[in-house]
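Two proteins were folded this term; both appear here.
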Amino acid sequence: MAESKVRKAAAPKAKSAVKAKPAVKPRKPESHLAMVRRARKINRELAELYPYAHPELDFDNPFELLVATVLSAQTTDLRVNQTTPALFAKYPMPEDMAAAVPEELEEIIRPTGFFRAKAKSLIGLSIALRDDFGGEVPGRLADLVTLPGVGRKTANVVLGNAFGVPGITVDTHFGRLARRFGWTAEEDPEKVEAAVAEIFPKSEWTMLSHRVVFHGRRICHSRKPACGACPIAPLCPSYGEGETDPEKAKKLLKYEMGGQPGQRLRPPADFPGEAAARADADAHQGQVADLAVAR
């Protein structure tokens, strides 16, 4: 009896059962035609999910959009939007920015990062606009990519949103989702653009870009995609890469999908979320004004 008690005391306690997550069912091999049909259905569902999708940079004309897009490299659209009011107040036209004192321009755009390289590009493209294009932003891809600091991505943003010329904007979000959706396995942005262009009609290119980027910023994040809260999940071959629990996934949603402000200080009228805060921009503008007075 004593020995039995000792054995019972020495016996390890059973571990509580851990609920296993449901296994993700592997998808069957897909024909090219089936992929195209699925891709176009994803686009239709994204259109229903984001009927208000738009460029998340504040701008009033092609020059402002061009400058803002150059500034958006390696930073958020929010940070750019909090910086450009002071920038365009001082340099409203290409002629003004072409004549900018580099150090003064650098100080204004410092919050966007890589400010010296960006200032060099902005002054260079402004000089080119002044000298080669009559002070106007050209509406052709071939002309835009000749400007300092302007590649295909920036050119397509400007063409699609300032001139109504269809274009596919392959930024980090678009490229990531194009691969996750199984539209392409390419990593190079130009190859991704070419592959996606074959799937969708040209009339859809600009809005497709906005929808995919919106989805990448709000739900299909790089490190922790919110798979369990994604309406596109049944169509996505990468479902299961992120959090599949619906409640946990909801906590990963961003911007208006997560009840947070958007990135634009001046969002479109149909945007369902709140405008971004101006506080940082106002504070930085004050710092720039103080610097000017000191000089």
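Next, the second protein.
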Amino acid sequence: MFRKRPRAPGLTDVAAQCCLAAFACLATAIPSSAQVPPVATGGTDRTVKVFGASGMETQSFIAHEGPVTALLFTPDGRRIISAGEDKTVKIWNVDDGSLENSIDAHEGAVTALSLSPDGKVLASGGADGRIKWWAPATGKLLRTIMAHARPVRSLAWSPDGKLLASGGEDRVIQVWRADGSQAASVVGHDEAVTGVAWTADGKALISGAADGYVKVWTVGDFGLASRHKTPDKSLSTLVSSVDGQMLATAGADGRIRIWTITGSSISELVSRILDRRVHCMAWSRDGKVLVTGGADRSLRFWNSQDLSVVMRVSANEGTVTAVAVTPE
């Protein structure tokens, strides 16, 4: 079920090997200021794939019995954690693609994952409306919370690991303390909350929703600090950069937008429209590259300053539904 491909020494060799292997691989020149990071992808084809910094596919394995819904790397970069519509969470060894643990996590599809900053607590959200906390090293269940009346759509730990935010199809934003008690509950949007993210200082929480709004909430009383109506009819996903200074959103119409974050306010920097819907996004560690995947089965690497394409790679055989950037 798992296969490993040798790494290529350079981008030219990668392109040649891709053509010889009969899979599409399109790459543009890579500016020195925007180096492509190694990434992992998951798709409706049930597979998880790993791509090196050159854009070369280095690993591919069948991960779930249905579509892959979420992916992340552990902080040391040695393991990939995947979630699927088959109700499971799985932990994989990056070096050889071996399965280290499989967890029967939820009564329905697992819809979201978030790992605490220290890597010791994994939070999963499900179509059953529950959030569960796990010890990723052992797979032990630590806590179960009946969090939402409808499926959980998004999860995010605060930078200090003391709070976990969740967004649901019930339009509610919930915030949970490390002991599992509820810190806040806000009916923040008119449609499903599709993304939540924290500012770098942990003093504000950002939410995006299918109603097209991006909102910023002040931590403490979780009052509304600012709101921004995008021209998009619906936001399908929202992610913040590792340093918390930039935000990316994707609309159901295929438009991606990059925003700068200043305190409790955001301002749009640049946007671009694609011909297919974007389902997932992730940032490089330095914030110079935004990685997107979607219905066209491609993985695109964008320069975050002007949304020019750094590289495009044919990824999964179905829609790309999850993407994660290595912490290296």
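The chain is about 5% helix and 55% strand. The chain has one domain: 2-65+151-325. These notes refer to the second protein only.
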